[in-house]
Write a structure and sequence with these properties.
two-stranded parallel ribbon; Transcription Regulator spoIIAA; elongated; alpha/beta; 9 strands; 181 residues; Arc Repressor Mutant, subunit A
Length: 181
């Protein structure tokens, strides 16, 4: 089951001003608090989709408060995943910059591309393996090695890295994509 949180609605509930922009650190902190409450209330959902499609802009301070601090606060003992959805190019730029600075990454779908991508800190291997997992609908290290023509240990290391940063979901037999176009 997927929980979808529409950030424009959270913003309207949190801030009394009638605008659709995620700006200022206090606004971001308040919105993140509401998101964390919603995630906690939906404890049966392993995947939360944060929908930015009706948000006009997000500044760097809000990107830090809403996205980076949300990821930093994730309980490593709980299998929970966050995916960003409906991002504009400007939102991608702000979020990518902030996450890279924290050495964090998140899976995202933008308004301009049907293909999921990684925002934030990720190596070229991470991005190539992420794309291969998306394209295959899920794979193990052996399949990834055949698809990318990499040594098996490189594939294992990269898949484990993606799973530890919650960019793919590990199962007993494969690593699965969080989102499909």
């Amino acid at each position: 089951m997927i929980q979808t949180i529409h950030l424009d609605a959270v913003l309207r509930e949190t801030v009394t001003a009638p605008f659709g922009d995620l700006v200022t650190r206090p606004t971001g902190a308040a919105v993140r608090g509401r998101i964390q409450q919603a995630i906690k209330a939906a404890s049966g959902c392993a995947l939360t989709r944060l929908d930015f499609s009706a948000v006009r802009l997000i500044d760097f301070s809000c990107a830090d408060e809403v996205v980076a601090k949300l990821l930093l606060a994730a309980d490593p003992a709980v299998e929970r995943y966050v995916v960003l959805h409906g991002l504009s190019e400007d939102q991608v730029e702000a979020i990518d910059h902030v996450l890279a600075g924290h050495r964090l990454a998140v899976a995202a779908l933008t308004l301009d591309h049907a293909r999921p991508l990684v925002l934030g800190w990720a190596t070229g291997d991470d991005r190539a393996a992420f794309d291969a997992v998306q394209d295959s609908g899920g794979c193990d290290a052996g399949l990834l090695a055949r698809v990318l023509a990499w040594p098996l240990n490189r594939c294992c290391d990269t898949l484990i890295s993606l799973a530890s940063r919650r960019l793919v979901r590990p199962t007993p037999t494969a690593f699965m994509p969080l989102v499909l176009p």
